[in-house]
């Protein structure tokens, strides 16, 4: 399996040399950003896949924002106060307009939240984010610039869930077809989308924060990484982040018109299980799979060392991070012992049982699945792989129609609310992202207490125990934090990648004269 990379590198080098003679003309005012798949839904109330969230963060704003150290800063609300644990008062900035010119008012904020909490009402949508706002009892708008939120109980996560990237305020009356032409207040505005082809956005001249220097960005969908590399070399593509095979970076870096920016990342790759499946419902089987995966070898070989093994969903520098729970590191002997104990001996051909892993048609995902197939085979697990177009794959994941899959958490894992969103029994889809239907009453109690308790030392203890439970039960395996690696044309300057792998650097990037 790993020997293929040398052949891939030679093939890529030859293709790049051939393509150098056929440089394609480009629109000098449009940045072509190469992405692996189309966003599933650009309505910020609905879209939870990586592409939807990253593009939505350019089109929409939340009530608050967060700085690089995860501290809350003003967003659409210039200030806010909390006179008591059950009341939040937001004071909106004046003269903020949506992309179509409509002024932003408190009614838009209330409508956005209410449309998720009450999908049966006019403009309502079935939103996987709805449970994030379940603590809200009622909302009031004493005037156009003031939103008063009354809570049923304290909620330490609410500000996080009202921040840019987690929420985007939409105009009052936006219906279920809003995704077809989304209208926000962000630094870029939507122009068009062709499914599986591209999304085009342009500079928002009405932006209240800062007006981007870039005039237009075309997010071009290119699932094949070799093609993506060629597009960058030819100049028909300007930019890609975390979607290129690592063995192509040296070739691309040698190009005089290309450069690479990178930083340590918080985007986490994980492997998730369907716990309703008879095989995977046994914790010993999940633990054995963890022991069969050589993460360090994958990081070295597939990712060129540009990642760090992950032991929690939270990044290691987070105040709530804890890695003191059980560890199921690479140990094929231990994996075999666990599988024997679970009642799955090898048969005459050495196979214990088959598992099906679903992937998208994105090459990096299929390659990871192939490596996992090889590693699991050594302990007697035959991993069958089925690849689908991304929208079909993601739909199956959300519906729980899988045994195993692998995806990335982007951005959301920088706050401890991720544990509830991904593993609380109250957050099984469509109410959240507990797609594997994991249930643990003790975990639920810990997360509920952490959400409401004002004492950070108690919250830290709650999260520490929650991480120990998840490390033992392994409803999902945390694989690695991937570095944020941006390859871009040198005509694009001031590119500073964010650890989360977000696209927010487009807000400050410029085109060289």
Compact overview of the structure:
The chain has helices at residues 4-19, 50-59, 106-117, 158-161, 225-234, 249-253, 283-292, 295-301, 332-341, 363-377, 390-399, 417-423, 441-452, 456-473, and strands at 30-35, 64-66, 72-74, 77-84, 87-92, 136-143, 146-151, 188-194, 198-203, 216-221, 239-241, 258-273, 307-309, 353-360, 381-388, 404-409, 476-489, 492-493, 510-511. With 513 residues, the protein is an alpha+beta fold.
Tell me about this structure:
Residues about 1-25 have low confidence and may be disordered. The longest helix is centred in the last third of the chain and has 18 residues, at about 455-475. α10 (about 365-375) links the parallel β14 and β15. The protein contains 14 helices and 19 strands. It is an alpha+beta fold and about 525 residues long. It is globular and about 75 Å long.
Helix amount: 25-40%
Apparent shape: globular
Number of DSSP helical runs = 14
**Overall SS class:** alpha+beta
Biggest sheet statistics: 11 strands, mixed
Could you list the spans in which at least 5 consecutive residues all have pLDDT below 50?
1-24
Radius of gyration, CA atoms, in whole angstroms: 23 Å
β-strand percent reads: 15-25%
Let me know the number of strands: 19
Q: Terminal Cα separation, in Å? A: 45 Å
What would the average pLDDT be, to the nearest integer? Answer: 91
Summary tags:
single chain, 513 residues, alpha+beta, 11-stranded mixed beta sheet, 4-stranded antiparallel beta sheet, 19 strands, globular, disordered N terminus
